[in-house]
Hints:
Elements: E1 2-4, H1 7-18, E2 23-28, H2 34-46, E3 49-54, H3 64-69, H4 74-83, E4 88-90, H5 94-97, H6 116-119, H7 123-138, E5 142-146, H8 150-162, E6 168-172, H9 192-197, H10 200-213, H11 218-230, E7 235-244, E8 258-266, E9 269-276
Parallel strand pairs: 1-4, 2-3, 2-5, 3-4, 5-6
Antiparallel strand pairs: 7-8, 8-9
Helix pairs in contact: 7-8, 10-11
Amino acid sequence: MKLFYTGQDVRNATQGQRQQSSVGLVPTMGALHQGHLELVKAARAENDLVVCSIFVNPTQFNNPDDLSAYPRTLEADCRLLESVGCDIVFAPSVEEMYPYPLDLSLNFGTLETVMEGAFRPGHFNGVGIVVSKFFNLIQPHRAYFGQKDLQQTAIIKSLIRNLSYPIELRICPTVRESDGLAMSSRNVRLTPEERSIAPTIYRILNECKTALLEGTPVEVALKNARDAFSQQPAFRLEYIELVDADTLKPLNETGKANALCVAVHLGNVRLIDNIVF
């Protein structure tokens, strides 16, 4: 496995093989867990060359404290990536990715005004720009993202479609701990007590899903879910919404592709999750 720190080096390494080999890209911010490794395994199964980027992207953070607290574990990440057959790790510095003041912005329409977009203004502009940079540098045939970040996958789908990237988007299922908690790099920041109650998020999502499938009106089911979170003093709910899994538009009744999406603060950690049904 090779480790590159500059865009020119990773471009040279991938472009030399791209004509004869398929390239799969797994963009990450590091602090890797089994969920990330499943993305790499999926890329390994479908491509000749697998590239994983590790970059804590400052332009997608709204909270400077969240940015500084985000775990950075490059050496451990590289060991994990090598164990699952990654070929290339691209771990640039902030200066490498943003050598000039950023004066470009992307607008994803209604996709960036709901849920995560409503609570994290500018977040998806940052995501779109950094992923565009990776796409341009590496030029993968396929890119791999996890369903846990459902709204992000919709943003990437829009990016690929509107900028005519010849890239196939692969969305892989959310990987969970044995107690149901969605795997996240942020989970390591939970205290033992917070970690013990974190699976409540998935439990409430499932209870809401069951109620909806049994015919409970959407607003009633969502109110009950909000009440369930309010009964847990450790949680501070930002949103829980039923949306169309493809467009992310809010639903007043269940449809063919439903997604229950939630964002909640547990102590100093912000966690998101979703169920698609």
